[in-house]
Amino acid sequence: MYSIALCDDEGKELDQIEGFLVSYQDRKQALEYRTERFTSAEELLQRIREEGYAPDILLLDIFMSGRTGIEAAKEVRKLGLCMPIIFLTTSTEFALEAYGVDAIQYLVKPLDGERFFHAMDSAIGQIRRLEESQVMIKVAGGLRQIQLDNIVYCESQKNYQIFYMTEEEHRVRMTAVKLWELLERFPQFGRCGRSYILNMNHILSVEREEIVMDNGRTIYIPRNKAAEFKKEYFAYYFDNREEMK
User: Using CA atoms, how far apart are residues 151 and 122, in angstroms rounded to an integer?
Assistant: First the structure.
C-alpha cells in the first residue's frame, strides 16, 4: 500500500486531489493507497521531523500561507527523503526551482485528469525503480534512504549494525536478523557468519579465509562458513557475468 501526502492550504483543493486519486485507482485496480492531508508546509515538515513520517508520494501546492511548497521540498530533500514530488500550482513561475528539487511533475491548476494520471504513473514508476535500488533505515535524526550500490558491507555489533558505505558510515540500532530481512531479497548481498553481510559487487577477492573488499577492508571468514560463502559468491559472480554478455 502506498502512502500519499497531500499538502495544500485550501480544503477544496485537497478534496479535488483526493477525487482524482479515486479516479486513478479505478483505472489501476491493483493500486492500494492511503492519503494524509496537510494544510501547511510546516505541518507536513513537523510530522516528518518529529515522527519520521515518510510518504511514498508527495503532492505539494506551491503557494501557501507561511512556507512555500518549494521551501518545503528543499527541506524534505535536506532530511534525506527522495520520494517523488508532484507540484500543483496556479503559476509556471517556479518551474525551474521545482526541477531543482527533482520534482517529477509540475502541474498548473486548474488540474486536468489526464495530466494528473500521467504524473501519478511517473511517480509509481519511480517508486518501483527506487524499491529495487535502495532501502530505508532509521538513523539519528530521522529516516535515511540508502542506495544499495553504496553499501560495501554491514557489521553486526550487538544490537547495532554498522553500514560501511563507499563514502561514509552509519551506526544503526537494529538487530542482525532485522537487517538481513531487509537485504536478503537483493541477490548481491550474502551473509558471512553471524557478524557480516557483504555486498558481493564490492568484493575484490576471496581467498582461503579472507575476503578483500574494494574499500580496502579485509573480512575474515569463520572457518566453518568459508566453503559455504565461497560457493554463494562464485555462483553470484558467474551468474552476473553471464547476464552482462
Answer: 27
pLDDT in tens, 5-61: 999 999 999 999 999 999 999 888 778 899 999 999 999 999 998 888 989 999 999
Cβ neighbors of 20 (< 8 A, separation 6 or more) are 111, 113, 116, 117
What torsion, rounded to 10 degrees, do the Cα atoms 14, 15, 20, 25 define?
100
pTM summary value: 0.62
